[in-house]
Design goal:
The chain is of the alpha/beta class. The chain contains 11 helices and 15 strands. The strands form 4 sheets. An 8-stranded parallel β-sheet has the order 2-3-4-5-6-7-8-9. It has a 3-stranded antiparallel β-sheet with strand order 1-10-15, covered by helices on one side. Helix 3 packs parallel to helix 4. Bound molecules: (4S)-2,6-dioxohexahydropyrimidine-4-carboxylic acid and zinc ion. Zinc ion binds next to loops.
């Protein structure tokens, strides 16, 4: 007897960590997110970066202009924190509902982070302003010290940077973006147990893959992202964190499109493009863990609650029906982007299916 495919209806999810870039590439990738997610937190690491509320609102208008007609996708903006961010800018961000918070990139940590923060110790007045006005600080949690092994950069960031920020600013809302290690999960759980407003986003690729995926039969540039994939014990800690249903962890894909030729290069860019299956890939993980009942809170409730936003009202339906991911998608200006699982199957799909 043929089994009926499993189906799951959940409140429409939000993606609280998303890169959409700008220009033609942006127009090409946005529909993937708009189809799945109600809202997204848009990352500010453009060239040049989005460092003010005014720039963030202008960027948001550009996004709205190229969205497919009839979607009510609601981009919410992050502002790029620099050494020169003013306390007044923090106050402006606090007044603007469309701004979610500030994104801290240690200078040089990742794609377009040259304008990032060079000395955390000089930012205490800005952190204090955020703490006072309840503006979240979202961190790329990796040290840039070249003496630190790339696989240890998150743990060392927590020790050297995050713990001191937390000590100095007990009421600050902090998001450890794209947490990748057991150390990070433990830190979030510990900090929350002490009453702190700390949370982490988790990507689908860090839940699905360990670092072997970067070297499977040869070097795999499309599995190179930052923070870099970690060993299996860390992946298992991430999966356990989401399957626990803890409100300390919520969905942020970190879908980060790069043109194919810029990843398949002698010095390839960091980033996995996952927007084409931004919720389906998570459904795979939760199904595998027999934790599908925890997907809705992770994807649709916890992040909205953390940011103090209303939960979405509509629903989406996922069906356990495998589909073949194309080798690439168009990415503007004659470029293509290679999605996660290119040429392979994903086990869940959105209903009704379009792609
Ligand atoms: O893999 C990554 N890609 N990690 C980041 O932190 C940035 C992102 C990007 O913008 O490409
Ligand atoms: Zn990112």
């Amino acid at each position: 007897m043929e089994m009926k495919p499993r189906r799951l209806s959940i409140i429409r999810p939000d993606d609280w960590h998303l890169h959409v870039r700008d220009g033609e590439g942006m127009a090409a990738v946005l529909p993937f997110s708009a189809r799945r997610f109600g809202r997204a937190g848009i990352m500010p690491n453009l060239k040049p970066p989005v460092t003010t509320v005014a720039q963030a609102l202008a960027y948001r208008e550009c996004i709205l202009r190229v969205l497919p007609a009839g979607t009510d996708f609601d981009p919410r903006m992050f502002i790029y924190l620099t050494d020169n961010t003013s306390v007044e800018e923090v106050a402006r961000a606090a007044q603007e509902d469309l701004v979610l918070g500030f994104k801290l990139y240690p200078a040089g940590a990742t794609t377009n982070s040259d304008a990032g923060v060079t000395d955390i110790d000089k930012l205490h007045d800005r952190f204090e302003a955020m703490e006072r006005s309840e503006v979240p600080l979202c961190v790329h949690g990796e040290v840039t010290d070249l003496a630190v092994d790339i696989f240890d950069r998150e743990r060392v960031f927590i020790e050297r940077v995050l713990v001191p920020i937390r000590r100095g600013h007990p009421a600050l809302k902090i998001v450890l973006e794209h947490v990748t290690t057991k150390d990070g999960v433990d830190y979030v759980n510990y900090d929350r147990s002490m009453g702190s407003q700390t949370a982490a986003t988790i990507t689908a690729h860090h839940l699905l893959l360990n670092r072997n995926a970067i070297f499977q039969g040869g070097v795999r540039p499309h599995h190179y992202c930052l923070p870099v994939l970690k060993r299996e014990t860390h992946r298992q800690a991430l999966v356990a964190a989401v399957a626990s249903g803890s409100p300390g962890f919520f969905l942020g894909t970190d879908s980060a499109p790069h043109a194919k030729h810029t990843k398949e290069a002698a010095c390839g860019c960091a980033g996995c493009f996952t927007a084409h299956a931004g919720i389906e890939l998570y459904a795979e993980v939760f199904a595998e863990m027999n934790a599908l009942d925890k997907l809705e809170a992770f994807a649709s409730f916890t992040g909205a609650d953390f940011y103090g936003l209303p939960r979405n009202m509509e629903t989406i339906t996922l069906v356990e029906k495998p589909w073949l991911v194309p080798q690439s998608y168009e990415y503007g200006e004659g470029n293509t982007v290679v999605p996660l699982r290119a040429g392979e199957q994903i086990l869940w799909q959105l209903e009704p299916s379009v792609e």
